[in-house]
């Protein structure tokens, strides 16, 4: 099957399940036309409802069962369709068919999510983000199930229930929702010190991404590539966003949770609807099997990264998300990912966290999706045919024909039959395994602080400040003072300066007599300040009133649009606002419907309004919020009085409209920078 035909096949396959009800006659689920849908069948107009009203019972039963159990973790998610295009053949490393021919395209479905919160929680909470990709390949479905952080809290899957029990709302009062700032989580951290490295990531800016489109994705685990000759390489997977890696600031993230709890899904949906398709490049890190033990960390340890300076990331292809879902429940909620969904040429390692996930994911789908036939749901169906002797069960859609459902057999000439490796049959890598049965962990997994220190060393001054603030907030929410002290003492092993700053903020004793990590190396790839900085798809609020300078505004707005930015005209009320030069602009939002935190930058045009006091107050609030969140601010000649009435000051990222010929470009450049950390806010530079 060719790549293009493969994609068309998946779209055509889904077509048979799409149902457009508009213009159709109502029927029962059995196809019977309905004559009445307003009143149940009763014994007289005021009498009791009769049991024989099969339509009422079908309708009500279906409603009662509309909700399936939400995911225990990653419940709050959003997804999109797309395609993966291979840049470079990986034939030397893997026999996976979709990684052989440069230019070949494979359909994908990608789901982003938070981890801790319920399905109804806000999206900008401090949390890990899930990043799961289903490749519909000609050899079957391949699922790359990862996160936006390359490491994890624990080393062995047997501890996963403990981690989630600790981070979920506390059982005695079911609080807090979608938050790790509480006693049980930090009690778990302090008593399970393998979490140290992940906590540094979790309290960094990576935990509050600006957008799903602006965060990295990682496979987390060490997998194997195996080529046609049986040669294996260890591999880690990376998704690199073309827009760069960018984040919110904590105050902003908290406010967005109230202003728009759907902020991230709205951002993804609108980008795709606007034709700003979402692009991630796929990279791999490869280690030859003979080099397995040449590093000062165990490459199978899921709490460790392979520093990119030691093991470079090789970019091999690009994923483009270009189509939104038709129905969130049928696709986003019912999609079933599993790290055990692999294709020939991709295999596992003895990472104990990965080994446990290979059991857990199937077990989870069985209860969420009602039984063993979740693979038959349209979003989960592979594009290639599937045949086996599995039968029946809840939700079975296949109508199996014939009397044979076992292997071996003679009635069906021993079919369906197995395939040899040469025919594309999956054969597990023949790794030699020997040892006594034992419940223990390798000594090579026991260093918990070196890479946590590497991460800390690699942060900029601004990023370190944000980590200290995050610790201060999270541990400050812990009621038990002993746990606060345990956390301070634990992270003194990473960096005494960090622990001392946290101790001062949360009222704990300063750490003494600790063995601080002596790691001095840095990894520039870990800092977001080294990321791509582009204005594309950034969102700008134009704050405008009557009587504005039309020529000036048109020049700046055109510069923003030409740079690929989205512009919203924000005023005191909906309708049309007229400028001095007879330029009329349609108002997109009002001060009541949006907020400064929902934009990447603001352009203060100013003007007049019926209620100038309120217009001024709302404009000044926008300016103050943008300024303290280090966002770019452009001020038109007619907007200076509003800027002067605010707490903002001229300086980095503030563009004052003097030379209109350079004004637009200067603003676009300021937006591309994302944040202006050298700006002094409350006397402190970002």
Write the CATH architecture name of the largest domain.
Answer: Beta Barrel
The N- and C-terminal alpha carbons lie at a distance of 54 Å
What is the strand content?
Answer: 15-25%
How is the CATH topology of the largest domain named? Catalase HpII,  Chain A, domain 1
Name given to the CATH homologous superfamily of the largest domain: Catalase core domain
Structural class by sheet pairing and helices:
alpha+beta
Helical percentage = 25-40%
Shape: globular
* Sequence stretches where pLDDT stays below 50 over 5 or more residues: none
State mean pLDDT (0 to 100 scale). Answer: 93
Q: What's the Cα radius of gyration?
A: 28 Å
Number-wise, the strands total 20
How would you characterize the largest beta sheet?
Answer: 10 strands, antiparallel
Number of helices: 17
CATH class of the largest domain: Mainly Beta
The count of domains is: 3
Biased composition (Basic and acidic residues): 7-24
Organism: Sporosarcina saromensis
Cofactor: heme
Family: Belongs to the catalase family. HPII subfamily.
Report on the structure:
27% of the residues lie in helices and 16% in strands. The protein is an alpha+beta fold. Strands 1, 2, 3, 4, 5, 6, 7, 8, 9 and 10 form a ten-stranded antiparallel beta sheet that branches. Strand 19 and strand 20 form a beta hairpin. The longest helix is centred in the middle third of the chain and has 17 residues. The two termini are 54 Å apart. The model has no long low-confidence stretch (mean pLDDT 93). Decomposes hydrogen peroxide into water and oxygen; serves to protect cells from the toxic effects of hydrogen peroxide. Its EC number is 1.11.1.6. It catalyses: 2 H2O2 = O2 + 2 H2O.
């Amino acid at each position: 099957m060719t790549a293009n035909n493969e994609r068309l096949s998946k779209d055509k396959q889904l077509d048979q399940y799409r149902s457009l009800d508009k213009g159709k006659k109502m029927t029962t689920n059995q196809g019977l036309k309905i004559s009445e849908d307003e009143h149940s069948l009763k014994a007289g107009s005021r009498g009791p409802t009769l049991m024989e009203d099969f339509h009422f019972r079908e309708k009500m039963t279906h409603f009662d069962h509309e909700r399936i159990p939400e995911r225990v973790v990653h419940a709050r998610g959003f997804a999109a369709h797309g395609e993966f295009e291979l840049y470079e053949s990986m034939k030397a490393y893997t026999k996976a068919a979709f990684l052989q021919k440069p230019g070949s395209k494979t359909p994908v479905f990608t789901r982003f999510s938070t981890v801790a919160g319920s399905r109804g929680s806000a999206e900008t909470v401090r949390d890990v983000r899930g990043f799961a990709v289903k490749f519909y390949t000609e050899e079957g479905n391949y699922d790359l199930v990862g996160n936006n952080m390359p490491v994890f809290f624990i080393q062995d899957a047997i501890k996963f229930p403990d981690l989630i029990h600790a981070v979920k709302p506390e059982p005695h009062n079911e609080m807090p929702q979608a938050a790790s700032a509480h006693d049980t989580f930090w009690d778990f951290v302090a008593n399970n010190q393998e979490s140290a490295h992940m906590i540094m990531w979790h309290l960094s800016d990576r935990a509050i991404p600006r957008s799903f489109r602006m965060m990295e994705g990682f496979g987390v685990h060490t997998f194997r590539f195996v080529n046609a000759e049986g040669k294996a390489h260890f591999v880690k997977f990376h998704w690199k966003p073309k827009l760069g890696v960018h984040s919110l600031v904590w105050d902003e993230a908290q406010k967005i949770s109230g202003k728009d709890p759907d902020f991230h899904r709205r951002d993804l949906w609108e980008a795709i609807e606007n034709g700003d398709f979402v692009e991630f490049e796929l990279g791999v890190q490869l280690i030859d099997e003979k080099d397995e033990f040449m590093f000062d960390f165990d490459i199978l340890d899921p709490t460790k990264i392979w520093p990119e300076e030691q093991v470079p990331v090789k970019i091999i292809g690009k994923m483009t998300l270009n189509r939104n879902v038709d129905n969130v429940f049928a696709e986003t909620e019912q999609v079933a990912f599993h790290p055990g969904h692999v294709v020939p040429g991709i295999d596992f390692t003895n990472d104990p966290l990965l080994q446990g996930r290979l059991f857990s994911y199937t077990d989870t789908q069985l209860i969420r999706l009602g039984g063993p036939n979740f693979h038959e749901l349209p979003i989960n169906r592979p594009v290639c045919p599937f045949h086996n002797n599995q039968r029946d069960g809840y939700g079975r859609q296949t109508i199996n024909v014939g009397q044979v459902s076992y292997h071996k057999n003679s009635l069906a000439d021993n079919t369906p039959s197995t395939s040899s490796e040469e025919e594309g049959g999956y054969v597990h890598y023949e790794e030699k395994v020997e040892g006594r049965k034992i419940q223990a962990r390798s000594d090579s997994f026991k260093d918990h602080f070196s890479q946590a220190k590497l991460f800390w060393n690699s942060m900029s001054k601004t990023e370190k400040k944000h980590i200290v603030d995050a610790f201060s907030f999270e541990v400050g929410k812990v009621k038990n003072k002993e746990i606060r002290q345990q956390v301070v003492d634990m992270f003194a092993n990473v960096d005494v300066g960090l622990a001392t700053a946290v101790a001062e903020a949360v009222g704990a004793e300063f750490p003494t007599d600790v063995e601080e990590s002596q790691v001095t190396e840095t990894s520039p790839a870990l800092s977001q300040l080294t990321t791509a900085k582009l204005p594309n798809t950034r969102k700008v609020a134009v704050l405008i009133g009557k009587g504005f300078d039309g020529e000036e505004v048109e020049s700046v707005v055109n510069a923003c649009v030409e740079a690929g930015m989205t512009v919203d005209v924000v005023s005191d009320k909906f309708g049309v606002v007229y400028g001095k030069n007879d330029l009329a602009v349609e108002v997109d939002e009002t001060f009541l419907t949006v907020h400064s935190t929902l934009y990447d930058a603001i352009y203060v045009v100013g003007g007049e309004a019926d209620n100038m006091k309120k217009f001024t107050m709302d404009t000044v609030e926008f300016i103050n919020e943008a300024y303290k969140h280090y966002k770019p601010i452009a001020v038109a000649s007619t907007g200076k009085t509003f800027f002067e009435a605010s707490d903002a000051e001229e300086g980095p990222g503030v563009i004052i409209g003097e030379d209109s010929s350079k004004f637009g470009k200067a603003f676009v450049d300021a937006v591309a920078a994302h944040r202006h950390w050298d700006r002094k806010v409350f006397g402190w530079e970002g």
